[in-house]
């Protein structure tokens, strides 16, 4: 195993670098958000270009300031489809969005309140939901997916986090049915994704450690399975693959 795939013990310098990184990305977000506003107003394609530049800044600064980069494995998906990903930190959001050419997320409605980021998220096609509204929220997602598929640009890659929350490396929580409901309604394939991003960029964001995080795209699951078998299939693919990446990065010993 290459040394870069294992995070080292956090030091005081890592705390300092993390603070510098957050200051930099806050300023970069502010400047790019203001400069990119006219493009964002032109529609989804233009807003996506601004988002791609922003994502490049975020991940580029992570390499330079933090010594952290992302390795992608598997076939990066394109076209209209659903993605079901393990969620450990903000890094996997950045990495997935950077990899997918026409990315959009199913996200908590509260994200809309985040200055600049929330506005652009809606412009690029993200779907904000109130998870407390249950079936009504599912109907909203299905309706917005159908509408997006009818546009010249299409839906793109709609990203779900079936756990519904960030988990710590090596941790597993029950999956939720959202992505399975949408697949049965739309017939779109689901691409499962395994990650070990939380080994380097922790759930709460401090401190970020240098190394090589991995995002692995797994073979797609076509439509046809019923909800419960499909949810089980997602877990059976994502969890073992994520655990393998967890151990590749040193497992619990590396987090000590």
TrEMBL record:
Presence of keyword Transferase: yes
SUPFAM superfamilies, alphabetized: Glycerol-3-phosphate (1)-acyltransferase
Source organism phylogeny: Bacteria, Pseudomonadati, Pseudomonadota, Alphaproteobacteria, Rhodobacterales
Pathway the protein takes part in: Lipid metabolism
Listed GO biological process terms: phosphatidic acid biosynthetic process
Keywords from the named record: Acyltransferase, Membrane, Transferase, Transmembrane, Transmembrane helix
Membrane-crossing segments per the record: 20-41
Keyword Transferase assigned: yes
Protein name per Swiss-Prot or TrEMBL: 1-acyl-sn-glycerol-3-phosphate acyltransferase
InterPro entries registered for this protein in UniProt: Plipid/glycerol_acylTrfase (IPR002123)
Phospholipid/glycerol acyltransferase domain sequence ranges: 81-198
Organism of origin: Paracoccus limosus
GO molecular function: 1-acylglycerol-3-phosphate O-acyltransferase activity
């Amino acid at each position: 195993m290459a040394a870069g795939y294992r995070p080292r013990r956090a030091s005081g310098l890592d705390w300092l670098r993390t603070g510098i990184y957050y200051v930099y990305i806050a300023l970069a977000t502010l400047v790019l958000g203001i400069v990119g506003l006219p493009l964002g107003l032109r529609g989804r394609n233009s807003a996506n270009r601004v988002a791609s530049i922003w994502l490049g800044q975020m991940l580029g600064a992570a390499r330079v300031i933090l010594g952290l980069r992302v390795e992608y494995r598997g076939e990066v998906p394109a076209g209209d489809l659903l993605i079901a990903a393990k969620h450990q930190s903000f890094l996997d959001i950045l990495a997935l969005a950077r990899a997918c050419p026409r990315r959009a997320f199913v996200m908590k409605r509260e994200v809309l309140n985040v200055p600049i980021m929330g506005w652009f998220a809606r412009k690029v096609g993200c779907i904000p939901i109130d998870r407390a509204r249950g079936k009504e929220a599912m109907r909203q997602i299905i309706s917005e997916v159908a509408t997006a598929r009818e546009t010249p640009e299409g839906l793109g890659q709609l990203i779900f986090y079936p756990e519904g929350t960030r988990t710590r490396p090596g941790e597993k929580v029950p999956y939720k049915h959202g992505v399975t409901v949408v697949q049965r309604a739309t017939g779109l394939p689901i691409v499962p994704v395994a990650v070990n991003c939380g080994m380097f960029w922790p759930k709460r964001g401090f401190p970020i450690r240098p190394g090589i995080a991995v995002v692995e795209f797994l073979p797609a699951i076509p439509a046809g399975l019923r909800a419960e078998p499909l949810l089980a299939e997602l877990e059976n693919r994502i969890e073992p693959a994520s655990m393998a990446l967890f151990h590749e990065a040193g497992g619990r010993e590396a987090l000590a």
